[in-house]
What does this fold into?
Amino acid sequence: MSSFLQHSHIQFFLEMLFTAIDGIEWFVIAYVLCMIIFFTAKSQYLKFTFSYPFVFMLAVIFNPFFIVPVAHVIGLTSRFRRLFWLLPVNLVLAYAFTFLCTLPAGNGQKKIFFYKIWRVIAPFCCIAFIVILGTSVRPYLHTPQNIYKTTNEVRSISAVIANDSAETGIKKTALYADLQLMELRQYDPTITNILRRKDLLNWNLENTDQQTVESVIQSGNRRHILALTARYGIRIDPKVFRKNLRRFKINYIIVPDGMNFHDYFLQTGYEQIGTAGIYEIYRINRTRK
It folds into this structure.
């Protein structure tokens, strides 16, 4: 069987699908049911507006035998689940709920009576569907508990580096790759991260095997070489790591404590000067040549 019709394409597609719709499964099921009803309805408006575009997406965008190989070629594999955001689930359900709540009354006193009852019941049914089967966002809302509207870790890191820089006179040039620390530069513009925004958001490794790591090192891209350690937690040759740190004159390194890089950074000439929440802060050892 050719690679175009590999079973792994279906498996990968389904894994990304279940990841993308995690928590909204019932809404997607309701969306598919609406598509079936619209497709079988006599209304050409519903077919051209909703059903036909859906059929086209099934044949092209959501065809695992076509889209998975294409995703590998264009480098979309790591962001594949975003394709499912193209499904207008909210729009279709909003239309369906509105339609259910505004059904025409029809003729006859009995039909009008049931219509009035339905106009009262339908909105509550729609609300119940959303409340019972939806996922509350409240547990994920964390309002910053300070006037600076940022995390306490960012403030603590800034304070540790500022105090150390004032004491030692060292320039505040840092290396960090945690996306949660992107606010650090906004909060304290005097701290310079050698990794640029595009290095954090646009550059991704599909694999971190030895061959891929060696290819990054051989590429000569110093920022990507440093990101191997700071972002992916890979212990490259300490001499290579130290050489690239010196190239950018990096004085501070900030990493999550779970990466367990204490001994590695000591080996490359850095010492820990503090912690901030889940982060460890290292500074170049001035006594080491």
